[in-house]
Amino acid sequence: MQEQKKGSFIVFEGIDGSGKSTQIQLLKNRLAGLGVPFYSTFEPTDSPIGSLIHQIFTGRILSDNKVVAALFAADRLDHLLNPTNGIYAKVMSGVSVISDRYYFSSYAYHSVDMPMDWVVTANSPCAQLLRATATVFIDVDPGDAIGRIAKTRSQLELFETRERLVSVREKYFEAFEKYRDAENILIVDGGKDPEVLAEEIWEKISGYFL
Ligand code: TYD
After folding, report:
1. Are 204 and 27 spatial neighbours (Cβ–Cβ below 8 Å)?
2. 20 to 30 A Cα–Cα from 3, which one of 80, 117, 150, 164?
3. Is the pLDDT of residue 6 over 80?
4. CA distance 182 to 44
5. Ligand 1 neighbours (beta carbon < 6 A)
6. Residue with CA nearest ligand 1 atom 12
7. Mutational test site, ligand 1, from 40, 57, 64, 105, max ligand atoms within 8 Å of CB
8. What is the pLDDT of residue 156?
């Protein structure tokens, strides 16, 4: 019997306000235009575990950052293994999947509050099941990122967010350095014009879809 060819799994990462959503949309438009089949998804998911995370983020449920870190690992495992729409089965059956965030988000966002090794261990079942074919990191200056998200936040929140984004960006780079042998990480300059950047990203990843 011929072995089923696996689909590609392309992950987009970046700090909040990095322009990740725009780049994902431009990639989806391009793939749709070319008639290339794909499945697009995101984390935190819209599953019951993901919605618990959203409720904690919006303050409707009170919790601790350590709990959030553990919930993200659970949400991610469900994202992979859910019997209805788990992405592990999709990739194995030959479907290419694009995800807005995966475990590097956890490595970066949660190792600000606790040791990165804990986060990596909590996410190791996910890494063992499925590593990204490529992780596209859209790198932006945290100050510029704040500018993009400023419209929805107060001054105080913005200050707190900037400090946090600076740390999160540093943690991303720490994780990329640590795991560069096991992972395929593509760092791109998010300060560029979105259309120009989309072109550059496409040049790097088109081979995974065509
Ligand atoms: P989301 O509404 O998806 O924002 P964005 O469009 O910026 O991705 O919320 C994602 C937030 O959740 C973002 O601030 C990063 C955070 N996050 C974690 O803290 N840990 C994780 O493992 C993931 C996937 C996201």
Report:
1. no
2. 80
3. yes
4. 24
5. 16, 21, 42-44, 72, 100-101, 105-106, 109
6. 44
7. 105
8. 65
The predicted structure's pLDDT at residue 154: 73
Whether pTM > 0.70 for this model: the answer is yes
> Which pLDDT value is given to residue 150?
85
Q: Is the per-residue pLDDT at 109 higher than 70? A: yes
What is the Cα 210 distance to its own chain's centre?
22
Estimate the crossing angle of helix 103-110 against helix 65-81, to 10 degrees: 180
Measured distance CA(68)–CA(177) in Å, rounded = 25
| CA–CA distance, 177 with 127 (Å, rounded to integer) | 17
Which residue's CA lies nearest to atom 10 of ligand 1? 44
Residue of minimum CA distance from atom 20 in ligand 1: 106
